[in-house]
Amino acid sequence: MADVRSTLNLLRILEQLSHLVLQLQTSLPDEARSKRWLAVSLDSSEPDWREWILQLEQSAIEYRYFYDPVLKRHFLSVGSLKEFAICGENRFHAVEQEWQRWLRDIWRPSNCPLFVLPGFSFAPRHESKGWVGWPDAQLVLPQLLLMGNETSFTAVGLFEQQQPNFVLSGYWHKKPVEEQRLTVDALLEEFRNAVESKNAWERRVLHATEILKSHGDLEKVVLARLSLHATETLPSTAWKLLQKEYPDNFHFIFQHQGMTWLGASPERLLTVMGNRFYADALAGTERRGRTDKEDKAMGQALLKSRKNRQEHVAVVHYLQEKIQHICHHIQIPDLPILKKLANVQHLYTPVTAELLDGVSLADALKTLHPTPAVAGLPVSDALAYIRQEEPWARGWYAGTLGWMDSEGNGSFAVALRSGLYLHRFIAVFAGAGIMSDSLPEEEWKETEMKMLPIRRAFGIF
User: Fold this and answer.
1) Is the dihedral of CA 27, 30, 33, 37 positive or negative?
2) Residues near 1 by Cβ (< 8 Å), separated by ≥ 6?
3) pTM for this one?
4) Residue 197 burial (CB < 10 Å; 0-12/13-18/19+)?
5) 161: pLDDT confidence band, cut at 50, 70 and 90?
6) What are the Cα distances from residue 23, in Å, to 26, 74, 106, 112?
7) DSSP secondary structure code for residue 247 in this structure
8) With bands split at pLDDT 50, 70 and 90, how would you rate the model's confidence at 2?
9) How confident is the model at residue 4 (pLDDT cuts 50, 70, 90)?
10) Any long-range contacts for 316-319 (C-beta under 8 Å, 24+ apart)?
């Protein structure tokens, strides 16, 4: 009966919000009456994020979830009042501009927070075919927003002002099953054709090293691969396991057309809070040791690894060069430290700065995405190589997603350690940074390590 209790909990929250908006209507200021939507909020305790997500999955209501480990805050959006999707180069600013247009058509009390959870693909559509049904960028205006930590939360309801009954099942709509299955089946076939053997992957790595040795400008290219597995595990169950194993990662679940895009990414792309800017340089990978002694030795070996340090320094220099056009007072430590996860450890350098006047969140996203950690160096040359040589479309793998609020703040993660659930199948994605001296066997092992979190979460060993 867990799903019934959760349904009642979510609907009860929505009913409470609808009563608030009905009370509010009697005393609305004149400026509010011309707005399309009214927003109200209430604060409460004892959130049940796991139970809510389980119920939403069982009821097939579309939702989006994002966990920000820096703020230790959960974001959950439910239902869809309005959607915006776009393909092309201008996607970051188009999404930001659409969000601002929506905000101008919403009236809310001064203490009512608003946020949305946008998502972006790895590359614009003209650079990346495939991933049928998934645009280059998508923004959803939900009816119900929930934001908080493990002990308290704020619920926000958005209501059509001209709607006489504010609690309608239509807000919790789902698309026709037949339409969803056609999209799912098409993407499943695309992924089946894209799965590579170990030998095929290693030949691709070898070819890349030869190009890197002969190409004067191209220093690094990130190659991605996918695996496809049948599974009886549902995304909500996999997410609970990922949360347990990787509590310090960025967790996300995005439902779209009957598919579920989820992951536990170790890498923040950026955070903007007021004029403060934060980013992570994360490049260079080694597995964890079986014992504390072995783990320490492997961490030290990673810190001293010429190949990994060279790869990491390239990412740090790229970040420094890029953000100097949008930031000042940039602070970057001289040496990386180790970021240890359950199954791998990475070289990690935090970057902090202040945004220049007039620089928006969309400006920062366009400046940084994609980074050398997921594309290569120089980024433009690496993207051209990927476009020509990679045998499948990355879609939202290695893209970016996160939260943005009404004040221009936001935080975005790189969509790594991720998979796409397609009706009893899970497509798992991973990549490796290839340098001229990379060894194909070692790069295969690295991608296998990076696939392990999603595979294990879905019961694939």
Assistant:
1) negative
2) none
3) 0.92
4) exposed
5) confident
6) 6, 29, 17, 16
7) T
8) very low
9) very low
10) 316/281, 316/349, 316/351, 318/371, 318/372, 318/377, 318/379, 319/279, 319/281, 319/351, 319/368, 319/371
